[in-house]
Design goal:
The protein is globular and about 65 Å long. The protein has one domain. Helices cover 74% and strands 0% of the residues. The relative contact order is 0.13. It is an all-alpha fold and 319 residues long.
Length: 319
């Protein structure tokens, strides 16, 4: 509905040519900006209301006893949420504000864009059940393991403190007399966070629109040498800066595979585009410093590269 409305304004009302590259980029920018801003507001509003029923202390105590399982729960939850790398950030921030540990929230942030319903449905049609199932399992494994590693590194000091200050945390002393007060709390929290993030969101989506519409598929295919042992890291590094939705990513991965690229190389490119992007890094800069963003990207990239090589090996074994 939102995409149809944006198309109507640009192409019917303003009479712009949908075949022109910069107009396509403008369409992408407007649609994704509105989608992410609305998603950010309503999800934080919802999670803020839910948070009012649980104290930060209780959330931390519950997750503290779960250890590895907490990361697995977060990664699995990420797998069933239909969000891209940028759209996952609102929930990531809300989890941190609820007192969930950094490593556990990273497990969600990593897995959510790698595995989602839209991508799984598209993969089933292109790759079949066996490869899709292995992809889902590997995506959850990447999120779980990378989240565990990041959690062990004690990186909380690299978060932007004003976004996660103590006054924004809920403790057992705060009382909510009725449901309306909980709704108001969630609304105020959503409004506050949106005010702090909106400029970063627009900057990130703007960069994503340029990358999405001005980097041709032929460039990606030609940049990856299918006969080279380094095809997996090359495909991953090329995929990291890019930004696109599942409908655009899966066909590119299929095209690479059909042209003779190893399965792991094609999937590592798809994982990199899904899980990491420069627009995501720009948006995350409001929540954490550059050091933490670089560590997060580096560890996730290494996890994707390892998985790419694993899929290449499995392809030779299964064949």
């Amino acid at each position: 509905m939102l995409q149809v409305s944006v198309d109507w304004v640009l192409f019917s009302l303003c009479k712009l040519n949908p075949q022109v590259k910069w107009i396509q980029a403008l369409n992408f920018f407007i649609y994704d900006s509105l989608k992410i801003l609305l998603l950010l507001f309503f999800l934080i509003w919802l999670i803020g209301c839910l948070r009012s029923y649980f104290s930060t202390i209780k959330v931390k105590e519950w997750l503290a006893g779960k250890k590895t399982m907490a990361n697995l729960f977060a990664a699995t939850f990420g797998a069933i949420t239909p969000f891209c790398s940028c759209s996952s950030i609102p929930i990531f921030i809300s989890f941190l504000k609820a007192g969930v540990s950094l490593g556990v929230t990273f497990s969600f942030l990593i897995t959510s864009p790698i595995v989602n319903e839209y991508l799984v449905i598209l993969m089933l049609g292109f790759f079949g059940f066996k490869i899709t199932l292995l992809y889902v399992a590997s995506g959850i494994a990447i999120g779980t393991i990378c989240g565990l590693i990041l959690g062990k590194m004690n990186l909380e000091k690299n978060l932007v403190q004003d976004l996660f200050s103590k006054e924004n945390q809920i403790d057992t002393d705060i009382k909510f007399p009725n449901f309306k007060s909980r709704l108001l709390f969630g609304f105020e929290e959503a409004k506050t966070i949106l005010f702090k993030l909106w400029i970063w969101i627009l900057a990130g989506v703007g960069l994503g629109a340029l990358i999405h519409n001005f980097i041709p598929q032929e460039f990606v295919r030609n940049a990856i040498n299918k006969s080279d042992l380094l095809s997996v890291p090359i495909a991953t590094v090329i995929g990291v800066p890019m930004y696109g939705n599942c409908a655009a990513i899966v066909p590119i991965a299929v095209a690479l595979f059909q042209k003779g690229f190893p399965l792991g190389t094609a999937l590592s490119f798809m994982m990199a585009v899904s899980a990491l992007s420069l627009p995501e890094a720009i948006m995350l800069r409001r929540a954490m410093n550059l050091k933490l963003i670089m560590i997060f990207f580096a560890i996730t990239t290494l996890g994707i590269i390892f998985t790419g090589y694993l899929f290449n090996y499995l392809q030779t074994v299964l064949n």
